[in-house]
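User: what does the whole thing look like in 3D?
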Amino acid sequence: MAKQNLSEQLDQMVEALITRPAVARRQREPKAKAQLQALARIAGELRGLPREDFKARLKADLERRTTMGSKPAVATETRQTATAYLCVKNAAAAIEFYKKVFGATEIMRLVGPEARIGHAEIRIGNSSIYLSDEHPEFGSISPQTLGGTSVKMNLSVPDVDAVAARAVEAGGKMVRPVQDQFYGERSGQFEDPFGQVWMISTTIEQLSAEELQRRVDEMTKQGAFTQAERKPDEKATPAVRPIPEGFHTLTPYLAVNGAARLIDFLKEGFGAVEKFRVGKPGGKLIMHAEMRIGDSVLELADASEEFGARLLGNILHVEDADAVYQRALKAGATSLFAPTEQPWGDREAGVKDTAGNHWNITAIRKTGHRTDDTRAILPYLSLVGAAEFVEFTKRAFGAEETFMLKAPDGKVVHARLRIGDSILALGEAANEGAAMPGALHMYIGDVDSVYAAAVREGVKVLRPLREESYGDRAAVLQDAFGNWWFPSTHVKDAQF
Amino acid sequence: MKAPAQDAGERRLVEAAQKDPRRFAELYENNFARVYAYVVRRLRNREEAQDLTAEVFHQALANLGRFEWRGLPFSAWLIRIASNAIADRWKLAAREHGNPSPGEPSSKDVSPEEIEQRARLFRLVETLPNDQRRVIEMRFAQEKSINEIARELGRTDGAIKQLQFRGLESLRSQFEVSARQSTASKSAGKAGRLNG
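Assistant: Here's the predicted 3D structure for the full assembly of 692 residues, as structure tokens:
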């Protein structure tokens, strides 16, 4: 608390220094603590600090002059024809890593908006390498986002073991240990913390082409290369399921205020199990969480500036509606309606959870009502224009009607649609205020064609189709009825 | 103020750069902070100081062949170029405004100790832990508000204020250490001379 207070007081002094330097100089707060005054003096000295990129830019500029001014032969010698251009997440950290591990020198860096490095040049030995931060909007994507790289960097170094040791110490992972190779080099391979793969080698024997061929022939005879193909560190990437383990085509996504509280409610009230949770940086807010209730997954997150709150109605299939209803109330839900025998034979109760989502707690009594695709959670959309919505889902997502009950005026009372292996329930909202469009995560095998079809149907693209760091190729769409759709194909297993 | 070994090292560097201008980069690295510290102290404006610092090094590079070693540090030569360039600027400004006696705000000369101190502080900023360095740089060099920095870095205002506090605190403590060391080495040098 005291520290908080100090940093606050210090900032007021800094703010004055920056915005009203003359005034600040006159009124050196005499009351401030000696510690703060010492810091304010340092702050005063820092006014006029050059911009971080200025020094590097001027250096690059001077170097350009020195190389241009000298003989042209020298210029072509120092300017290599081909230069690797690495794209990384956190280029500033990568530059530090390369300095530490390879003894790289920074030639220049250009810092753009959001402090992202738009372009930087470093020098390792006699070679230049360019690098930049990730800029997905310009198609610059890092290996971490792509989940791998197809290009390896090769470095000839004087002492391969020393470089490997420094690499590991600085957070690199050895992909192939350093060892003597038949082709006259001692070499190894490591992956740096930014996903770039480096082959490092030191020449240990000078071999003629003939000698090299002789060794290859000898080793081929011994079957060395067929074995080498099956080296454990080169195992093929297993093909991933387009729908990740445990998921179905449709998964309800709740964007709420108070996600952590909702998670607790789902556990206590509905016996949900938390499978996964990742927080937003620097706070208690949840970026993404996955809960399992019976055979269904439910995803949720705290609402953000980009994606505001989006509540959803759900039908929760249970054995004992009364017991679950009571548990839910105890866990903090409010009652929408007490357990009731419905004319169609099921016993149902309604609650609103801590975030405001509706749950219709249903115990199916009639055997015919339970089908093969009845799962614990059935998402329910209450929409204005439900009949048009049904037609839209058929065209955009290839939905099939499995149940349709219409009122005499043509409005949908209750409908069920099948999309992939999942069922979606919906009905016409009593009025605009009662409408409750939702958010649905949709896993399909070929997201590109679904995306194209949806765009043809006039959906609004909230986030274009792209490969996300968590291993999905995904987009965010909003249909004309206010629902959000996250069509996705799982393309690789990745750490979130 | 400098040990003879350092002098010899600098002299070799200057001579190497006179033969091969590509070696000028090392002289630049060693003297950037000093020149900039001097210029910004005189001009009190970042943009102008950056412009003029660039001008000084370009002039130095172009005239490197004329530099003669007379036992003064290379930085003294650079500071003289800077001082002349600043004077030229003021003369020019005075002519343009038709003012015969320009009100140059800080015409009194800056002491070498003061330049050295500020240069040391600027160099210390470069050695701060990444997140502290970024906040200090955005706050003082880019003059951004706490809230702007918080939004750019995806942190809370409170976290940025903390980083600013910690950054200034580590600069202060390191600054004092390096100041002590430089006084210590100075007195050690004196003692050495007296004994020798």
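In plain terms: The mean pLDDT of chain B is 80. Chain B touches chain A through 54 residues (CB under 8 Å).
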